Each structure stands twice: as structure tokens, then as C-alpha cells.
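Entry 14. Structure prediction run on the chain below.
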Amino acid sequence: MAVLKTDQPFTVSEKPKTSANLQALGLVLASVAFGAVGQLVLKAAMNSLGELQLSLETLLAMATSPLLLVGVAIFAISTLLWLLALIKADLSFAYPFLSLTYIAVLIGGAVLFHEQVTFDRVLGFAVIVTGVWIVARSEKRSA
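Output returned:
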């Protein structure tokens, strides 16, 4: 049985928040990359299944689609990386970086699926990048 020493104050593991957030940045960006790739693979899988209706046959086709299962697995890796990042990072620091997934999917959708990239989408892209840049800079200032 462990005994708590009374001559020393009880503290939870004390790591500098800035250091933890910077270490977690790699995990966050890896999560973003896997999340974007996962979404693109899921889109390719659903495109390969053709037009579907809500039925038992559709669910069976989806459950046995190798490409769909790969997409789900990639997305699961993204989720695992995100959870590991949350151990080290402040949520308010890490969460805005998830919006980079939108940008990666926008580019991937245009390249892989020939989706239209409009001016409004590019403007939204610029707003997202600016917001993430502001959040990233705010972490450096609080050090």
C-alpha cells in the first residue's frame, strides 16, 4: 500500500504547458493528416459502391468493402493520434488545428475527385489558415 508523504506537497505531474503543447503539435498534425486521408479514402470507397439505398444489402456491401474498411482504419488511427495529443496539449490550443483537415480535404477533393474549388472556398481556406496561425502565435506569447 502506497503512503503519501506529508512533508511534500501533493502535485499532479507538472510539465510546462508550452512544452507540452509544442510536443503535441506533431501528434495533432499527424492526426489531421490521417483524418484528411481517411476522409478521402472514405469518399473513394463510397464512390466505388455506386448509388446506394438504405437497405440490408447496402449495409452488407459497405461492411465488406475493403476500401471502406481501410478508410475507417485510417480514420481510427487519426482518432488515436488525437487522443494522444490531448494528453499533452491544451484543448483550446489543439482544437483549431483540426480545421486544417478542411483544407487538406478541399485540395484532395479537387485533385482526386475533380471537385470544383470556388473563390468562396479559397476565401474560407484563407480564413482558416489565418485563424490557425493566430492560435499558434498565441501559444508562443504565453510562454
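The chain has a mean pLDDT of 84.
Filed with the rest of this week's runs.
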